[in-house]
Specification:
With 188 residues, the chain is mainly alpha-helical. 76% of the residues lie in helices and 0% in strands. The chain contains 6 helices and no strands.
C-alpha cells in the first residue's frame, strides 16, 4: 500500500502532537513541557533525518524524483523540523536559555538548508545533495556532542547523546559506501 504525502504529514504532525501531550502530562509545569517537547521532537527529527539519508543512499543511479518515498520523507523531515524549531524557540524564550550567537550560525544554516531542500533538492547536482546530507549530519553530531559535554542549559548529559553520536558517525560512513556503490558520487 502506497502512503500519500498527506497521510505521511498527518502521521508526522500527530506524532509531534503526541510528544507535546505526553510532555505536558509528565512535566511539572508548562515551561518544562515545552523543554521536553523541544528535546523529543528533536530526537524524532534526528531519527527521521537518518531515514531520509538512508533512502537517498539507496536510490539506484541517484535519480531524485518528486513523487517518491525519498522526496515525501524529505518534505516530512522539513515540516517536522520546523515544528521542532517552534518548540526550541519557545523553550529558549520561556526558560530564559542563554544563546551564544557564534554557535547559532551553523545551526541557522542547517535550518535554512532543511527548509529549502524540498523546494530545490531535485534540481541540485549530486555533489550539493551530498553537502546537504553531510552538513546536516555534522550539525546533528555537534549538537549531540555539546549535549554529551553538558553544554546545553536544562539538559543533563546522558547515554542517549553518545548513542546518537555513534549512530550518526556510522550512518555517514555506511551511507557514503552505499552512495559510492550506487555510483552517485559525481562532482559538483
Amino acid at each position: 500500500m502506497k502512503t500519500s504525502l498527506r497521510q505521511l504529514i498527518l502521521t508526522g504532525v500527530l506524532l509531534e502532537l503526541m510528544i507535546f501531550m505526553l510532555s505536558y502530562f509528565f512535566a511539572e509545569n508548562f515551561n518544562e513541557a515545552i523543554r521536553l517537547s523541544a528535546r523529543f521532537t528533536g530526537r524524532l527529527s534526528a531519527v527521521l533525518f537518518l531515514m531520509v539519508f538512508f533512502l537517498y543512499a539507496n536510490l539506484k543511479g541517484g535519480k531524485v524524483e518528486r513523487r517518491s518515498p525519498f522526496f515525501y520523507n524529505l518534505i516530512l523531515f522539513a515540516i517536522l523540523h520546523i515544528i521542532h524549531f517552534g518548540f526550541l524557540a519557545a523553550n529558549v524564550l520561556m526558560n530564559s536559555i542563554e544563546l551564544i550567537p557564534v554557535k547559532l550560525v551553523g545551526g541557522a544554516l542547517a535550518y535554512g538548508m532543511i527548509v529549502t531542500a524540498p523546494l530545490v533538492f531535485d534540481r541540485l547536482k549530486r555533489g550539493l545533495q551530498l553537502v546537504y546530507f553531510y552538513y546536516v549530519s555534522l550539525v546533528m553530531i555537534i549538537t549531540y556532542v555539546a549535549r554529551a559535554n553538558g553544554d546545553f542549559q536544562g539538559a543533563e548529559p546522558s547515554l542517549i547523546h553518545f548513542i546518537f553520536i555513534g549512530i550518526y558517525i556510522l550512518a555517514c560512513l555506511g551511507f557514503g559506501v552505499l552512495i559510492r556503490k550506487n555510483k552517485k558520487l559525481i562532482p559538483f
